Each structure stands twice: as C-alpha cells, then as structure tokens.
Amino acid sequence: MTRPTVGLAVLVLLLVLLGAASCAKGRVDLTVDVITDWKPGSDFTRIETEVSRVPFDSAASSEIRQLSYAVAGAEDFVHGVRVADVGEVGTGRRFVRVRLRDAAGVHIAGRTLEVTLDRTFAATLLIARSCRDVACPAPAGAPELSECQAGECIDPRCSPSTPEFCGPAPCDENADCPAVSTYCDVALTCGETGHCLCVDDAVVPDAGPDVGIDAPTDTGPSCPTTETACTDGLDDDCDGLTDCADDDCLGAGCDDGFYCTTNDRCGGDGGCSDTNPTCPMFCNEATSSCEECTANADCGAPGTGAWGSCGGFGADPCNTVGTRSRTVTTPRCDAGTCVVDSSSQTGACSRTTNGVACNDGNACTGPDRCSGGTCSNTPAMAEHSVCGSTNQRCCGGSCVNITTSTAHCGGCGLGCNSGYSCGSRGGLPTCECFNLHSTCSGSTGSCSGSTDLCSCDPTYGGSCPAPMRCYSMSLGADVCTY
Description:
Blueprint: H1 6-25, E1 30-36, E2 46-52, E3 64-70, E4 81-86, E5 92-101, E6 107-117, E7 121-127, E8 147-149, E9 152-154, E10 189-190, E11 196-197, E12 261-266, E13 272-277, E14 282-284, E15 289-291, E16 303-304, E17 321-334, E18 337-350, E19 392-395, E20 398-401, E21 422-425, E22 428-431, E23 446-448, E24 453-455, E25 469-471, E26 479-481
Parallel strand pairs: 1-7
Antiparallel strand pairs: 1-4, 2-3, 2-5, 5-6, 8-9, 10-11, 12-13, 14-15, 16-17, 17-18, 19-20, 21-22, 23-24, 25-26
C-alpha cells in the first residue's frame, strides 16, 4: 500500500498558481505552513515565525520580521496549518525560522529553513516529535546537515515544499514506521510527507475540513448566501472571495499576523487592515514585546544634580581654590528599554580665608593669620623676644640660636668678625678673638688677652645693647647676657 499523495499534488498545483499570480502582480510573498505531531493547545499554544535576509545568528533584531500565530487547539497540524503570510519579502536567499512555544512561552521545538526565492512561495516546515532529543549537526556527522526533520539531520534547504534537497522519504505506508518509539505511546503513522508521525486522537482533533498544506475547499454546492467565517481560509458562500476579501466580512474580527497590532478587523481594502496598536508606546515586532523607546530622545533629556560641598583645599588653611562635584544623568535607549547612565562632573569653587589662623613657619611672627590666600598678614615679634628655648631669640625678624650664630652671638646684633666663631665663657656665648688686637666688633669692646674672648668690660669702653646687660666675670672677658 502506498501513502496518499492527493494532498501534495494539490499543494504543487497551488504553488504553481500562487507563483503565476505573484509574477502577474510583480511582488514576491511568502506563506508558511507547519506540519507537526506535537499536540496543539497542550504541548504548544503559540507559533512564532521569523524571516531574515541573513542567517539568524548574524542578524540584528531590526532585520528580522516576526509573526505570531495563536493556537486555538482545534487545528489539524498533522495535515498542515497556515501559520504565517509574509508579504513583500523580495527575491533571493531567505531564512525562515519557526518555533513552537508552550503556555509559559518556553520554546519546545522548532526548525529553520533556507530558501532562495524568485517568485511567491509557500513554505511547509515539518516539526516532528522524533527530533526532540536529536542535536544537529551530529558530533560525528556532516556540519552542513544542521537541521532535524523527523529524527534525521538534514540540509537546511530540505523541507516538504523543497524535496529536491532531501533524501528518499522514510516511509510509504504505516508498516514502514517503527512499532515502538521513546516519544510516542501509539504506533507511528506514515504521514502525507512520507515521514513517521506520532498521531493519536489528541494530536488530530475533529476540527472539520483540513487547512494548511491541503488546499482549502468550498463547502460544496449548498453554499450559504454570505461568508459564514472570516478566518477559516474558505470561500463559504462560493462567490470566489475568501475571508476579508469578501465584503460580507467588513468589520469582522481577523488576524493580520503581527504582534504589534490588536483587535484586528477586516477593512474596506479587502484585507485585515483595521487594527489598533498593541503597545502604549513602542512595539518591537521582532521580539513580540512592548518597549519604552526606539531612540535615545524617547527617554528624555540629560539632567544635572545639585553641586556638592566645596572641598579639596588640602592642608593649607589659607587656600581659597577648591573643587566640587555633581551627578550628570544621561538617558539612552537600550534594546527598547530606557536606561540612565550616571557620571560625575567636577568644577572649581572658592572660599574666604582672611583672618583664619595659620602658621607661616617663622616663630618670630604671630599670631599668624591668612590674608589674600596666603599666610602673610602676620605681625613680627619684638627684637630679642624668646622664640623657642632660652637660647633662641628673634633677631632681625628670624629665630636664631644665639649660642651658635656668628651674626648674633650671645644676643641680637652681637656679630663676630670674619674668621672667628661664637664661643663660650661660663656657659654664656660670646665671640672668639685674638689677644689684644681689635678683633671684636660692635659694642662688646675689646678682646680679653687672658681668654681670647670679646669682652663688654666698661673699663675698656664695652657695653651691651638693651635689653641685654654686661655680666661681670672675676677674671677675663665680661659677657653680654639677657
């Protein structure tokens, strides 16, 4: 017994007629039929069809046309159901991907078909349960056999509508199919495409006349006076017009196959064209989702926050120039969703420091105060003032050690002549000299011959600058001290 061929013969005739009609109109359209032994309404509730000019793994979302088919559960998918009608696809190489999704949106099965179009084409894709656990290309198989059809890895160009790219059909009759399989509880049936399918009452509901791969047929000579259904693909009233093309269906509900339209109605142009938008703002047909944006401008203008406090002055209490920062927000559109990028903007700021206590590093000025951004508005201490230990005095505006300074040896203004050091007599500093020669400068007078130190002895004309006094030693040089 050979398998039935009437359905395929009708399909071939339809393809020829569609091709002729397409050429006559000068446009190339694509229809997609699906044959599957997965159970409609329970295994899957929606079918997604995508069409691209380039392979899907390299196609941008904007390059993919997507249509969605809502499964009612009563369709006869074993014989084929029309799930997509894609208009104006153009000629050349095209990629068609069909996915079956369950009620939770999970992809349970699918198939990709590669076709080269030169006229309107009706593509039929077989998605059988026998491919459930098959990975293509097989690990040790040919890499070009990248798709699965009825349990076998095949050329992606192979389909029931392009049998020239397929091998021999696996079956001619039911006896050619395995009696037992891991994916079917009943004996497999040889389908019209020559492939073994898991067919039971749950897969093939009693839905009336076949639709899809077999040509829609009229209801017979007893036709109603008007079109009774506007979405069944049948010419119910036998007037040569089907569904929305018939004026009887004007305003009736229909489905234009696009996610981004809803409440579709048959329009006055003879098509399913009277529609409402699915999404309140932007709709992405490629991903079947509502979006917030299509461009950055849809997400609003950039914004700036308030400046923070002024800081960054460093350790200098007199520094008047600092920095402050604020947040800059830049909205942008990312794959249909508005996101906001945040960055920090830095700017200069200033403060007033006049009168703030500071330290100019000079112990002989003070109390130090800031003026004009520097520690400069600082009065000098009186000459001879103690600026540290008792051996440190303010001389000429600087703090010096009077026990080692040759310019101020013993006190401010008591300088040693060139070549002589600041020595000591009885623990008190005074300049060294040489014998009785005039090697002492200033008011200390003369050089003591017994000690070789400069003396302030009044007997020899010596004296000390106020507030210093001449300290009298028992012998030798007398020394100026505070």
